[in-house]
Amino acid sequence: MKYNIAGIIVDMNIRYPRLRRQSEAYVYTGTAPANVNINLSEEFYDEKLSENPHLDYEMIEYIWMGSEFYNALIHFNGMLLHSSCVVYNNEAYLFSAPCGTGKSTHTQIWLKRFNGAYILNDDKPAVKLTEKGVYAYGTPFSGKTNQNVNAGVPIKGICILERGEKNSIEPASADEALFSILNQTVRPPEENSMDKMLSTLDTVLKSVPVYKLRCNMSLEAAETAYNGMNV
Asked: Distances from the Cα of 195 to the Cαs of 68, 75, 77, 201, 210, in angstroms?
């Protein structure tokens, strides 16, 4: 079956309920040919299960089909950013950090503080260069939750999130922005794919402001982040 994910027509051979359920909003019924084909073989499932006995076939499909998509995305002027993306007033705000830092906790505070805010993708939004600018897209691959929306939204800012007792936000240095994002994206082993990803990242960093946010879990944390990115 074909799906439209971040403006890319993807033919995915989905076998298990989780990914099928999370992909329902992305089903493509048009006649355009697929840009990307993803079909994991039975041997692949078995191999990954032997390497990862704590997983089941459903999770193997969910993880590795997502991996295949994000590797393909690189060749469509896009990239993965491991982050939680919240949308408010039709602008996307991405909060990126290592697992366990509190990205999802922070964006949930936005939902409480700002009426009409929603989660575009809670773990792996697609960041893509478009004719209108740099956009964030929902995808079916949203980590531990199913919080994702099939939409593309212009990016207002990216925050490198850290825990802190007090809330503060400041522009990230060029090195902080570069290395933090590199650590939270796919870095393909193929040289041409890596060159393409770095070119996309260079444009993103020139087009989208990146901030460093230290925050606690109060409603004020969302206010600090929003105000700091809307000076």
From this structure: 18, 10, 11, 10, 22
Which residues touch 183 (CB under 8 Å, ≥6 apart)? 98
**Rounded Cα gap, residues 171 and 150, in angstroms:** 30
Per-residue burial over 37-71, b if 16 or more Cβ lie within 10 Å, else e, is ebebeeeebeebeeeeeeeeeebbbbebbbebbbb
| Cβ atoms of 185 and 133 closer than 8 Å | no
Are 14 and 27 in contact by the 8 Å Cβ rule? The answer is no
pLDDT score for 94: 98
Enumerate the β-bridge partners of residue 163. Answer: 215
Q: In a 3-state reduction of DSSP, which class is residue 91?
A: strand
Cα separation, 131 vs 111, whole angstroms: 29
Question: For the chain, how many helices (H) and strands (E)?
Answer: 7, 12
Q: pLDDT tens, 126-155? A: 999 999 999 999 999 988 778 999 999 999
Which residues, listed in sequence order, are joined to residue 127 by a DSSP beta bridge? 79, 136
Q: Which residue shows structure tokens 């290592």?
A: 98
Residues 6+ apart with CB under 8 A from 102: 161, 163, 215, 217
